[in-house]
Task: structure prediction
Amino acid sequence: MSSLEHAMPDNAPAVLTNEQLKQYQQDGFLLLESWVPDDLRQQLIDRAYQLIEQADLTEHNRFSTTDRAQINNDFFLESAETIRCFFEEKAFDEAGELTQPRAQSINKIGHALHDLDDVYQAFARRPEFGALARDLGLRAPHLYQTMVIFKQPRIGGEVTWHQDATFFYTDPTSVITYWFALEDATLQNGCLWVEPGGHTGPLRERYFRDDRDLRMEPLDDTPWPDDTSGTPMPVKAGSLLVFHGHLPHYSAPNRSEKSRLALTFHVVDGQITYAPENWLQRPTLGTFSL
Ligand code: FE2
Result:
């Protein structure tokens, strides 16, 4: 299956240059620097920490990025249409107590910030984000999911190699990820790694939902990239890394003293059927057009 099935637009791009479009088609990703003004970036960060302080923290919401079987399915599934905080795996000691303050113990906040939180909603409505998706070939860009990912100092976990179309399946593939650096992302604090050109490869796995059950199914045994075929993408705060749903990507654990906050959007073409087997469904909120 071609991974560029969503056709590039006939008209001149609105926010990208033709060179940038070509780069995206070739590499499967594009780095857009200074796409989040500093004042907005600070608002998004401050609001994320407020949400953590307000959250009802129970021990049922630890999030594992390496063993999805640990996820409490209901807590996770319900987060599709609300705002929930997920703990880092290593945030607890053997007695089950937090080993550091709650603000430094959260893995991520998701997944409907753009629907339910004023600050994130206003940010998502900025017109350049819809224009960007249209430039990249989505006819009706719909924002399905927002996440604030913390990658905490010392305990921030690895996210293993994957493709985002695994979780946002459409046929043809249409999902595009926006990855906003809310803080500098470096080799030390766990920046993203990508495989340039890897978006032309097949989708390797698909994540299925069957009522309340979740399972990962292999589709193709093409090997994942590694340290030699992957490329690290250290980026400055305020940058936007946008990438194709088949692009393999990964991030290392954060063993540094600095956090690495990122905000992600997953944008799908509303003119293509969104698979009812995808874990994230929005029966109540509907979809959010960019
Ligand atoms: Fe991802």
